[in-house]
Amino acid sequence: MRKKITPPRPWQSAAIAVLTVAAVLSLTGCNVGQSSKPSASGTGGQSTGNVGLSASSLNFGSVNVGASKTMDITLTNSTAAGGANVTVSQVKATGTGFSTTNTLPVDLAPGQSIDLSVVFTPTIAGSSSGSLTINLVGANNPANLPLNGSGANGSAPAQLAVLPSTLGFGSVTIGNSKNLTASLNATNSDVTVSSAAWNGSGYAVTGITFPTTVKAGKSVSFTVTFAPQSSGSASGNISFVSNAANSPTGENLTGSGAQSAQQHTVSLTWVPSTSQVAGYNVYRGTQSGGPYARLNGSLSTNPTYSDSSVQSGLVYYYVATAVDSSAAESGYSGEVTAVIPTP
């Protein structure tokens, strides 16, 4: 007579463990530093210094309206007759379009010198004249220095280009990031870029500070980072504000977020058989009621089993049997269903 073995009772639960991923976006801000030329100091042996200039005038020539040109003139404290300390207290430019960019006051010992910078930025076409006044302490002020230049309506105004015009990041897994490099390119004249603004979820711009000057025919590079926060396509753009004729100048951003490959696991438990058993077999099918295929290679001695070979989006049906020491196997337990999420 065949021995009857009590099968396991229907399982209490079928839990699905799903890996979750969190993404973090960090934005780097842009800071602008300011530099200045060092001051010079010294001691002298007489009450009045002797100073001289490297030129008697500055002629800027023709400069396009809206563009700028900088010229330097050197002021030297002579060592003649023993020399004395001199302080450059103020430098002032007069005349339409002329200005200075000097950090003062500066002390000059005998034999020391300083480069004084004068900028010409014409606002209208035509000739312009002015003068440079230098105020000194400890020496007689040199004569006012004549300044001359003319504004021109250039046929080719300054232009700023962002290359490439579109940055395509492709598919990036949520929780990861991708960096791409682009550049600002100036043509016809130097371009000063004062700021940048960008939009689009997950995008950030680094590697550039403002304001920045792009020399004519040259380029300045920067980095765009894409760290998607959700699945699906994400678009954005960057807008650069400058003194170029085509300001603001933009660049498009494209990319998409992708879910990471997730490994689902079906965790199974059941009420043990009331008979004396050596272990259990676990079976799985893709249709309710079978057919079923056995999953475990050897008997499971505990009333639990984890199935990590499932695929996203499918439905599975599980049963179990009890096996005694003589290899006799019970009938199937009650069936449970596990629905695997997508992805």
List keywords for this structure.
mainly beta, Immunoglobulin-like, rod-shaped, single chain, 5-stranded mixed beta sheet, 3 domains, 343 residues
Walk me through the structure:
There is one protein chain. By secondary structure, the chain is an all-beta fold. It folds into three domains: 9-19 and 262-339, Immunoglobulins (Immunoglobulin-like, Sandwich), CATH 2.60.40; 51-152, Immunoglobulins (Immunoglobulin-like, Sandwich), CATH 2.60.40.10; 159-258, Sandwich (Immunoglobulin-like). The chain has strands at 9-17, 51-53, 58-64, 69-77, 86-94, 98-100, 106-108, 113-120, 126-137, 145-152, 159-163, 166-173, 178-187, 191-199, 203-206, 212-214, 219-226, 232-242, 249-258, 265-271, 279-285, 293-294, 304-307, 315-323, 336-339. The strands form six sheets. Strands 3-10-9-5-7 form a five-stranded mixed β-sheet, with no helix packed on it. A five-stranded mixed β-sheet has the order 12-19-18-14-16, with no helix packed on it. Strands 2-4-8-6 form a four-stranded antiparallel β-sheet, with no helix packed on it. It is rod-shaped and about 125 Å long. Residues 12-46 have low confidence and may be disordered.
